[in-house]
Amino acid sequence: MSKFLDSKLKIVILIAAILVVLITGFMLIYFNGIGAVDKNNEEPVSVNIPSGSGGSAIVELLDEAGLVKNKTFAKVHVRIGGYDSLQANSYVFSKSMTLPEMMDAINTGNFDYISKEKFTIIEGATIAMATEAMAKELPFTAEEIIAAWADTTYLQQLIDKYWFLTDEILAEGIMYPLEGYVYPETYFVTEEDPTIQSITEMILDKTDQELTQRRDDIEKMDLTVHEFLALASVVENESLFDKDRAKIAGVFLNRLEEGMALQSDITVLYALQERRVSVTNEDLQVESGYNTYQNTGLPIGPVCAVPGRTMDDVLNYEDNDYLFFFAMEDGSVIYSKTYEEHQKVVEENRWY
Question: What are phi and psi of 118, to 5 degrees?
Fold first, then answer.
């Protein structure tokens, strides 16, 4: 009889052990399923929670925004999580947040995550364009933002804080010190009383994120970050189609290697602070460190906001033999290896 009880006890212990393993395994999978989608991705994601939304509907909205790791476990969590005062609003989360963190914010209406304002800096925008866009949504004028971004004391503080900012932005002849460093993106402002300084650092934090992940590749090009952004900004505004950026970057790098002037109309127009298609002979005479007709090498600084895709195209430039290119009216580009070929292309296709 004792042997029978001993055998039965062993079975009970085995079953209990199996249950513990299963429960432990389930809990590990469960907590992983309601964890962060990407712990290292703090890019803001806006989610609008309509009035009357229940837990399951909110999970669907968060999932559509890419913020849910496992929808099944997420729905289980909102049912047992005790979220009884879910508040409608526009929230700003990130993939680095766990589901409980987001649900707690929605349940309490946490002001830190409520989207109050947003503004968009478009790809290829100049500082003048960016500050105009910001002024439409923020309690500052474009002139106030530009003045803050020209204050050398404040700029030095930024240089001390951000690895990619150097004294190059303070060089004589620079028109807007932060040109090229204002990353093109839609930014969500959750502060109750934002300042120009807090908005600036929010933008530069995004720039930091984009440049840091490309830091090693930029160094391999034997360019400073400032020089890299100057080159990338010219490529950004010289190309209309994705397929041309890497090729145009290759052309400019060929010209730099040959000691030729870049001769980019974009840089001349930037020196004139104008945006149009053609330049005149008179335009080409403008005295400026941005004028790549008068000066060899890169312009003194970037000429616009550079998106990540253009940075990548410059880093992965096409190794070609072209030294010239001509943009057609429809945006297509004709490339030439010699000046004679280029002149023929221009004569046969000039449209402006």
Answer: -145, 150
